[in-house]
Amino acid sequence: MRRVEPMTGESLGRVIEEIPLVDHHVHGVLAGEVSRRQFEELITESDRPVPAWMTQFDSQVGFAILRHCAPVLGLDPHPDPETYLARRVELGTEEVNRRLLAASGIGHFLVETGYRGDEILGPDQMAAVTGKPAGEIVRLEAIAERVAAEGTDAAGFAARFEAVLWERSRTARGLKTIVAYRHGLDFDPGPPTAAEVTEAAGRWLRASDRSGPARLDDPVLLRHLIWTGIERGLPLQFHIGYGDPDIDLRRSDPLLLRGLIELAEPRHVPLLLLHCYPFHRHAGYLAQVYPHVYFDVGLGVSYTGARSVAVVAESLELAPFAKILFSSDAWGPAELHHLGALLWRRAMTGVLSGFVAEGEWSEDQAVRVATMIGERNARRVYGLGEDA
Fold first, then answer.
1. How far apart are CA 330 and CA 343, in angstroms?
2. Where are the domains of the chain?
3. Which residues are in the Amidohydrolase-related domain (predicted)?
4. What tens digit of pLDDT does each residue of 218-229 get?
5. So what's the architecture of 10-33+94-381 in CATH?
6. Are strands 236-240 and 21-26 parallel, antiparallel or unpaired?
7. Which three-class secondary structure state does DSSP give residue 182?
8. In this structure, what DSSP letter does residue 212 have?
9. Bridge-partner residues for 240, per DSSP?
10. Do the Cβ atoms of 363 and 328 come closer than 8 Å?
11. What is the enclosing helix (H) or strand (E) of 168?
12. Between 140-150 and 157-168, two packed helices, what is the crossing angle to 10 degrees?
């Protein structure tokens, strides 16, 4: 019997390293230079200043940057933060972006453009930097806020939103909602009536008139956005779980979406649960029992660093492997784009090689599953084709 070394997986690791990953939910890299303070604030989901008595480098993601990104920038692994940041300044943001994105091995980017887009590169710019295709994911709430800013009345809001959404998403690959941030996932799952939408739009627009653009957090309008998105027919992404303090984590459990999932099922629109930590097991259950539900553990991988192997392993417990995708959800520093890919590859190699070494899986099965999750599932869901 051929002897397989446990947990090394050299041949499997080489195959996984070469997968041209489809990052099905990502944001652009930084367009300009940042200070040390700004950089540290960009490698945490906290929206508070980093206390003067600590450094954000003393975290799983910080240690992962010093271990895995430093060599890409020409340093030995594990430099001190000062050395790392000095090298970053020496190279400049453009070169840092080029090196780290190239080293990630990502073969296709689906870029969500609804958050602080003026500070980061858009899809076309990401494609130019990497030489890889980049499609767009359109954020529903950003479209609604644009409609309000351009001017509409309450009675005309629904029709205007639908028209702008269809035009804005004409070449997009998917849509996204941040209802988990704006309200929580514990909302009435059914579509609101036209009268309810008009009344809610009136409240929101009046609030905007008084104090400038108002935050869109009305549950009626958020439901309307979601159902309009479902009717649009593109894959619809939901932020789930871990995020900045703007989210109430207790109300971002994907199990709260069960009513919506069941009502939307006859439309056959793919619903994609993003990141999901610490609810990734719940997301795996939903992906198992509902044919149109998919999930990833994107954001949870980069921020758990050396522990990301456990997160990826848990994501493989229940869901069919055709229902799991790869994403990084990286925004800003290209270190997060690189780590999202590198840590996922490392985790998949470790977990799957263990299955092979224990005789539970064949190596062919391991290669096929890694390729499905890393690339092929996203190509099928988003209609990317083999070379799109």
1. 13
2. 10-33+94-381, 35-91
3. 194-384
4. 999 999 999 999
5. Alpha-Beta Barrel (3.20)
6. unpaired
7. helix
8. S
9. 275
10. no
11. helix 157-168
12. 120
